[in-house]
Each structure stands twice: as C-alpha cells, then as structure tokens.
Amino acid sequence: MSSIQLPAKIENMGLLVQFISDIARKFGFSGKRIKEIELATEEALVNIINYAYPDHSGDIKVTCTRDPSKAFVIKIEDTGIAFDLLSLKDPDISVGISDREVGGLGVFLIRKLMDKVQYHRKNKKNILELVVHIPMK
C-alpha cells in the first residue's frame, strides 16, 4: 500500500497523477492503459479540486493498493462537501454537443475507463475507489 496526501490545489495535480502512474507501471499496465488510468483519476481529482472545498481549503489523499482479487485499487479521499458521482446519470452522447447539458462527461469517462467505481461517505470523508484489473503476465 502506498499513499500520498496533498492540498487540493490544481498545482498538485501532476504530482498526484504521477504517483498513481508510477504504481500502475509497477503493476505491469501497458502505456495505453496507464493513459486511461491517468485520465480517469485526473477527472476525479479535478472535481475534488474544483468543488469539494468551496469555502475553505482541504487535502486529497490517494492510496494505491493491490487487492486479493489482483486488482489495482485507487482510493481517493477528501473531507469536502458530500458528492456521490455515481448518483449522476450518464450524459446523452447521442445528441449534438450544442444540445447536451453542461457537465457530467468526466464522470462518464471515469465509469467507462475503470473496471469498477465505488463511492461512499464515512466519518465526514468522501471515499472514491477506482478499480482496474491487473494484466496477467
């Protein structure tokens, strides 16, 4: 298990994503799959940075583990306002971009790129888990 905790500020985005990428690389993910993991985690982190702490500052904690089912688990925690991204409906991508509602595409990408996405709130913390199956060697 490896973890990092930094202030929820856009200037820390690169460090957080690089931390996750480095661990994904150690687990043997391909370059393409690492880019997908980076995109999904970046979307989740941007939501926290932009919306979790509207009137005060706070941190983001990222913990990366390998679970017993041989999956890479990225746990992202914050103590900001409660937000269950799984409660959002998928955007209607069949309509033209000018006819779509604003927002929701990042959450859609997270769901599509990860093998499993879980959210819960515990002890005043948002806990988002992004799960990716580790490739067989």
Explain this structure to me?
This protein is α+β, with helices and mostly antiparallel strands. The chain has one domain: Heat Shock Protein 90 (2-Layer Sandwich). 33% of the residues lie in helices and 28% in strands. It has 3 helices and 5 strands, in the order E-H-H-E-E-H-E-E. It has a 5-stranded antiparallel beta sheet, with helices on one face. Helix 1 runs antiparallel to helix 2 and helix 2 runs antiparallel to helix 3. The longest helix is centred in the N-terminal third of the chain and has 22 residues. The mean pLDDT is 88.
Largest sheet: 5 strands, antiparallel
Distance between the termini: 21 Å
Order of helices and strands: EHHEEHEE
How confident overall, as mean pLDDT?
A: 88
**Helix percent band:** 25-40%
By DSSP (H or I, 4+ residues per run), the number of helices equals 3
| Shape assignment | globular
CATH superfamily (homologous) name: Histidine kinase-like ATPase, C-terminal domain
Structural class: alpha+beta
**DSSP strand tally:** 5
CATH fold field value: Heat Shock Protein 90
Uncertain regions: pLDDT < 50 for 5+ in a row?
A: none
Number of domains: 1
> Which CATH architecture is right?
2-Layer Sandwich
Cross-sheet strand order for the largest sheet:
1-2-3-5-4
Which strand-content bin applies to the residues?
25-35%
What is the CATH class name? Alpha Beta
Radius of gyration: 15 Å
